[in-house]
Write a structure and sequence with these properties.
Elements (H helix, E strand, L loop, with lengths): L1 E7 L2 E7 L5 E6 L5 E8 L13 H9 L8 H11 L2 E6 L4 E8 L3 H13 L5 H18 L3 H14 L12 H6 L2 H11 L5 E7 L3 H12 L23 E5 L4 E10 L7 H12 L5 H9 L5 E5 L7 E10 L3 H17 L4 H17 L4 H13 L6 H10 L3 H11 L4 E6 L1 H4 L4
Parallel strand pairs: 3-7, 8-12
Antiparallel strand pairs: 1-2, 2-3, 4-6, 4-7, 5-6, 9-11, 9-12, 10-11
Length: 425
């Protein structure tokens, strides 16, 4: 084993690499008699081919429905008998198995997680059921204005890149997915050298690492190496996309291609997002909703991504206000690069961002999630402290320069009635 200890906010985080390549992160936190584990697998939407879009989501839905040792009912009973929580999820950049239990039951639940990860059976009836449920969810989303606007914005920005599509996939791709596809997905990505186990709770790091080695240590690395996906090059081509929907409300959405978490601009972009669209005190909420009454809802987001991300500001407005709302939204974003934020505005945004960041790492589940996520991103647990330093160091001049680099011309996505969008009926 290869081990090291890093002190993060006075908490020692033990990082160990097992002989089979599996990374184990362990944090002792005895505040409550609870242990949480986050098991990350390097896969997710980013690794999907266009022909199999949505396979990660379907895989997550079926993974816990049976193993070579346990039926779906037996798995559910073992979880419920201990009052534990165990679930699978897929995101843009990773697959996740989450586990939470009282300390005495953790060895049993980790062993169950091992069976689920290593020997799932994907019963045909469960695959059929979850496929139908996924198709229903996709059809439901196709009627939701916000989702429609976001989907067409992503497709405009990313085009052939996997980030272009919803994590659910499309009706066409999900309809074609089979049990055999799920088995191949499992054989390809579920291997010890592609797994990160992050544990936090009332357990010593030594005991946590020993348990993981006991459950997963004999999991062998396949002979064939796992090749990272080849990503298409993104081209910057701002455009306006519209979808006509007979509603009284319109969705106005502006999107800007921005760098990944590995960019030097990351901290400033997170700060600008907080200032612009985070909460009831944000610039967009105060100016466009409170003062001008234009918005039913208004916000901004900048997701952390392994690959190039996107900075989005959006508003739900009365259909007759669509044009005014679009101009107002764009003016507020343009202001970020045409005028410097004041020291007071920047300091308030820093306090809000760092306060929320600190509050997001209080529970064992949050601690395990953060440590595992940073490891998967290739940043290491040291990034926890580095992020605070990145944000604190941002000056008004730097914030303006970053906005100038990334916010000059938006992709625009509009959803609403034809007359509001200027589309002939």
């Amino acid at each position: 084993m290869n081990s090291r200890v890093t002190l993060v906010q006075n908490r020692p985080i033990h990082r160990t690499v097992l002989s089979n390549g599996m990374v184990v992160l362990a944090v002792e936190n005895s505040a409550a008699d609870i242990i949480s584990a986050r098991i990350f697998i390097r896969t997710g939407t980013l690794w999907e081919s266009p022909q199999e879009a949505g396979i990660s989501h379907l895989f997550a839905s079926v993974l816990t429905k049976g193993t070579e040792q346990f039926s779906s009912l037996e798995i559910a009973e073992r979880i419920e008998c201990t009052g534990a929580g165990l679930g699978a999820d897929a995101s843009s950049d990773y697959f996740l198995l989450s586990l939470k239990t009282v300390s005495p039951d953790f060895p049993e639940m980790l062993d169950l997680a091992g069976h689920i990860l290593r020997s799932p059976t994907f019963p045909e009836n469960e695959v059929d059921l979850e496929r139908r449920l996924t198709l229903q969810a996709i059809r439901s989303q196709q009627e939701q204005p916000f989702t429609i606007a976001l989907d067409q914005l992503r497709q405009s920005i990313y085009r052939e890149h996997p980030y272009a599509l919803s994590g659910l996939g499309t009706i066409e791709t999900v309809s074609r997915l089979t049990r055999k596809d799920l088995q191949h997905y499992h054989q390809t990505y579920f291997r010890p050298d592609n797994v990160i186990v992050s544990i936090a709770g009332r357990i010593t790091p030594e005991a946590a690492i020993a348990l993981v080695d006991q459950v997963f240590g004999n999991w062998q690395i396949p002979a064939e190496p796992l090749s990272p996906p080849s990503m298409p090059r993104l081209t910057y081509d701002p455009q306006v996309t519209t979808t006509v929907q007979d509603t009284k409300q319109a969705i106005v959405m502006l999107g800007y291609p921005v760098p990944s978490v590995h960019s030097p601009d990351y901290g400033a972009l997170k700060l600008l997002n907080t200032y612009l669209g985070n909460g009831l005190s944000s610039r967009l909420f105060v100016e466009l909703r409170e003062k001008r009454g234009l918005a039913y809802e208004v916000s901004a987001f900048y997701p952390t991504r392994l690959e190039a991300s996107h900075f989005v500001a959006y508003m739900g407005t009365a259909a007759e206000n669509t044009s005014v709302a679009l101009d107002g939204l764009k003016a507020e974003i343009d202001r970020l690069w045409t005028a410097q934020l004041s020291s007071g505005e920047l300091e308030a945004a820093k306090n809000k961002l760092l306060g929320q960041y600190a509050l997001g790492k209080q529970t064992n589940a949050q601690i395990a999630q953060t440590a595992g996520w940073y490891e998967l991103l290739g940043l290491g647990v040291e990034f926890d402290a580095q992020f605070r330093n990145l944000v604190t160091a941002v000056t008004p001049e730097e914030a303006q320069a970053v906005a100038s680099r990334h916010f000059s011309m938006p992709y625009i996505s509009l959803v609403g009635p034809a007359v509001a969008l200027g589309v002939p009926e």
